[in-house]
Amino acid sequence: MRLKFITLLVLLGATCSVAQTLGNKAMPDFTIRKGLPNFYKKLLEGKPVTVAYLGGSITEAANGWRDQSAHILQQKFPDPKITTVNAGIGGTGSDLGVFRLEAQVIKERPDLVFVEFAVNDISKPANLIHKAMEGIVRQIWKADSKTDICFVYTITGDMAADIENGKIPQSTAAMEQIAEHYGIPTVSMGLKVVQLATEGKLVYKGSKKDYPDKIVFSADNVHPFPETGQRLYAEALATALDSIFIHSEKLTANRLVKPFIRDNWEAAKMISVAEANRTGNWVKVMSNDPELQRVFKKPFTEFIKSNEAGSTISFKFKGQVAGLYDVVGPGCGQYEVKLDDKDLAAVPRFDSYSTYYRPQYFLKQDLDKRLHTMTFTVSSNQLDKKSILKQRNNQTMDVESRYSENACYAGYIMLIGEIKK
Prior knowledge:
Number of domains: 2
Structural class: alpha+beta
Radius of gyration: 22 Å
Largest sheet: 9 strands, antiparallel
Helix content: 25-40%
Mean pLDDT: 92
CATH architecture of the largest domain: 3-Layer(aba) Sandwich
Number of strands: 21
Distance between the termini: 57 Å
CATH superfamily of the largest domain: SGNH hydrolase
Oligomer: single chain
Low-confidence stretches: 1-15, 18-24
Strand content: 25-35%
């Protein structure tokens, strides 16, 4: 079997793209580049493998493309044990993914990492996407150069018009530059969705009962139903992997070529909030709190909370990026943030989606590489939560008491640099 695999690599190895017919489409269904040679080889040899899925809520969702694609893989390769790692966190992009990568993905020693951030990065500048995505690639390969990586691209209904007209979404275009630089395969999982919508067979947003004769992609234009949009994603990925596997190039010893961007975020890390200085009343958040259970994403099990205005968290550091991994939700208020002697804009920890608690983060970037002090202060200013909720579908509070606090939470310091005492 191993000889057959090596022969396939020699005869079929190539960097190529495959596309289906869809108007003036510029995006290919998938681009093979150097492929996934190590992962495929282990599958053929029947060795156990671990697949990590790093992304946002579309990846995190149960019975979505993550679970379905793993099931398809196990059916195609019944002998090896396939273990999966769910490293999806809703509402977050590659700029958080690169910081949590070590704890949530690399420590699991994966053989393959799927990276899904095209939707959540859609409004971010290309330069930031380059730094974060390249940081993800270089962190993975510094830990183990044999780990294969595949970027996958999901869509929203709002992104579909550009795709149909032959335009590549800006987040995808930026990620493609990193993928091309490192020879990483990519899969555009949403192109079949766009094709079906163009043919009048699919609607992006709605209720299944309102469109009994069509495929309904999602309820909100973004998060696919498991049996429709997520299924189409999983099927697109499975089809792409069939070609990517057999066209993969032979694994080379050194995959870490010269960086695409010099100040990429490969040194991004999370540091316990215990390293910070604190004033005021802070209490430890219990992981069995029924309201807050979803914020405890293994291994991020440290959160402290203060509802006392004026309470502070501060730390000294030397580095280019610093911030805080924390929580947004019904009972949250806002932070006042100071960098050295300069007051920054207040950071609200409540938004139009805050009917539940979820992990979130704040980052200050492009700092001078000198000694800085960052301070987070629980603000006394009250947010107009009713007005904020109304911004999204005229939403209202379910139980007003859930929204009465104006607390702030803190979990981890996010840093590219070093903590200084």
